[in-house]
Write a structure and sequence with these properties.
By secondary structure, the protein is an alpha+beta fold. It is built from 13 helices and 26 strands. The strands form 6 sheets. Strands 5-4-11-7-8-9-20-19-18-14 form a 10-stranded antiparallel β-sheet, with helices on both faces. Strands 2-3-12-6-10 form a 5-stranded mixed β-sheet.
Length: 448
Amino acid sequence: MTQVVQAYSYAGPSTLTDGRLGLSTSGGTALTGPQAHPRFFSGLLTHAAPAAAGLLAVADVALARYHNPRPGWTRDPVVTCDGERLRFESFSACGGVYARLDVTGLDGDVLDRGTTNVDVNGPLRESLARVGRGDPLHVGVGPDELAVTTLDGAVVEKKVPLPTRWLRGFAEVQVLAARWDLRAELGGPQAVRFLRSLPRGARTTVWAVPAGRDLRLSTTPARGGVRLPGVGRVATLLPLLRFAKALRVYGPADCSEAGGAWEVELPGMRYTLALSPEPWRGFSGEGAVLDDLAANEATDEATDEATGDADVVGMLLGFEPTVEPGLLADRAGLPVSRVRAALTQLGTAGRVGYDLHDAAHFHRELPYDKEKVAELNPRLTSARALAASGAVRLLPDDTAEVTTGGGVRRVRVTEGTCSCPWWFDHRGSRGPCKHVLAARISTRAPAS
């Protein structure tokens, strides 16, 4: 499996002592530029106990491998400070569950805005688990806070292999989430009752179906329902129920489609879980970004234009709480459609995410090598090669023939169907195949 190695280097371990939580940072990007150990925030969280529980939940997802559980590497959570909130993000080791904690109840100094990794170690987890409702919690995101709670200056270093499918997941989940809408909202008591009623089978699949102000469970698709594939994958919601004020469920319009997100409203914060369509499927193979990326691949000039748009829009991002495409369009002098395409390009490099509650993108900069992250879509790479080699023959009636080493593949361009074995296996459920992408790229190319 293709992977890169991410080196985490911390000035010291994160600690929690006498109500002071020092989150050590490793390599990130701030408004002031790249930094080895950025400092973003120092102050109080107004709701200590739910914040501690939520941070533990994010860290638990980073540790988990929901499909074929086995020991593996820990990926440290990512935190973004946008001046109004702290966003903690993680992905499960299997790549099928995305978690985010948005903490808005801040009382302190925002020292900078940006994104970094934070160390969540074993002793810190034990300390967070002991935080009670009445306990104060002073949080420092940055190495200087550690001077208060640590006596030595030892550097903590970890080198972690990051499979490309894990990195691709950050791009796929933001594209999929932008297609989901709010399907149900429950008050605190109803949320607790529903989540506690879920079956225990880790791989059980059910549908959550709106029923008045409540949700009911169904074992078959039902109108307005949201599919919950692998009930065990929402286990990190359960420890948060004692703080829950509301539960929101997001999903696609077609209840037979898989995937969706579960958002628990907590005092001063929100915890969100997004699930891939199947417990054994990570987000990386969903192919949600491929059509958007291929839309700008018809010619070298179009590719250069799309890359240029992404560069311009990327320079205008400033870790705002929400990204406004209309405002960016005015500032960049571009149509809104090109700004949205640029945001998709930026998403493939982990530079934007999507917040379902705000129904808007947000800016973050994953601290990974952007040149390596940029080459994470092998289907699109193969499609480019097919289109460039003249393997695509466009026919009347919106069809095409794509000649490959395995034979001629017949494609219906708009429908996105293909005669290849890959399409018959997945039938569009994981995005277009390389032959469909190649045909679409060729369709957009100008006639010679």
